[in-house]
Amino acid sequence: MSYPGHWANVCPDKPAVIMAGSGETVTHGELDERSNRLARYMWEAGLRRGDHIALLMENHPRYFEVYWAAIRSGLYITAVNRYLTPEEAAYIVGDCQAKLLISSAALAGTAGPMLELVGDCPLRLMTDGACPGYESYEETVARFPAEPLAEQPRGETMLYSSGTTGRPKGVWRPLSGLTMDDPYPLPQLIGSMFSMDADTVYLSPAPLYHASPLGFTVSVQSLGGTVVVMEKFDAAASLDAIERFRVTHSQWVPTMFSRMLKLPEEQRRGRDLSSHRVAIHAAAPCPPAVKR
C-alpha cells in the first residue's frame, strides 16, 4: 500500500504537514482520512479516471488533502497561481476543463469574479467560508465516509507554463496506468538523490502551485516524512522555522539565499541550525559566492 494509506497505518499521529506560521498540523492519519472523504465526494459527483479538477489556494493545510484526493481518484489536478487575475485564472480553469474548482475564502476576490468567465465547471467548493457560487468545503466533505474507494487508479498533475510566449499552456502527460498500491518511482528517486526518508523534515518556503515545491513536498510525504510549509517567504522566519521544527532538508531559489544573507548579523547568528543537512536550489542559476 502506497501513500497516503501506508503511513496512515504505520504512524497515524506523525505530522505530515506543519504550517510554519500558525503551527497548524495535519497528521498522516488525518491527511489519509480527509483525502478519502474528498475522493468519495468526487466519485459521488460523477468524476471518473482522467477527469480534471483545479485548485486555487494559498499555501494552506488543505492543499495536500485536495492533491491526494485527486491522485488517489485517477484524476488530473491543476494547481492555479494564486496571484493571477480573475480573467487569467478563469482561462486556466476553463482550458484544463476542470469539473471541480476548489478555492479558499482568502482568495474570494479572485475565485468569485472568475466564475462567470470559467464556462462549464459545475462543482465549486471553498474552504474557510464560502462566497456566492461556492459550497462550503468543510460541510460538503464531512458528509462522506473516510474509507478509500474500492479502486484507486493513480492520477497526475497538469500544471501550466507561465505564459511568457502567449497564453499559459498545460503540460499534459498520459496517466501511468498504475494504481495507488503500485510502486511510484519519483519519491524513491528524490529520496536517493537527497538522502530523504521517513525522518526527513522538509521546509518549503515557496508557493505550492509551482511544480518543484509541490513535487518535492508530496514526495517527502510519500516517504513518510514531515513537510513544513511557510505561508509566505520571509528571510528571518525561514531561519526560525529551521531551528523550531528541526528541519533537515529545504528548497530555495537563489533570491531567497540572497535575502537571508542580507539579514543583519544578529539575526543570522546565534541560532541552532545543526539539524539542517541539505539545501536544494532551483529555478535559476545560483552565483558561487552566494552558495559559499
Would you list the SSEs in sequence order as H and E?
Answer: HEEHEHEHEHHEEHEHEHEHEHHEH
CATH topology of the largest domain: Rossmann fold
**Nearest-angstrom radius of gyration?**
19 Å
CATH class of the largest domain: Alpha Beta
Q: How many helical stretches?
A: 13
Whole-number average pLDDT? 94
Q: Provide the CATH architecture of the largest domain.
A: 3-Layer(aba) Sandwich
Task: Name the strands of the widest sheet in spatial order.
Answer: 2-1-10-9-11-12
Task: Supply the helix-strand structural class.
Answer: alpha/beta
Portion in beta strands: 15-25%
Task: Provide structural commentary.
Helix content is 36%, strand content 17%. The chain has 13 helices and twelve strands. α2 crosses α3. The chain starts with a helix and ends with a helix. The protein folds into two domains: 154 residues, Rossmann fold, CATH 3.40.50.980; 110 residues, Rossmann fold. With 292 residues, the protein is α/β, with parallel strands linked by helices. Strands 2-1-10-9-11-12 form a six-stranded mixed sheet, with helices on both faces. A six-stranded parallel sheet has the order 7-6-5-3-4-8, sandwiched between helices.
In short:
36% of the residues lie in helices and 17% in strands. It is of the alpha/beta class and 292 residues long.
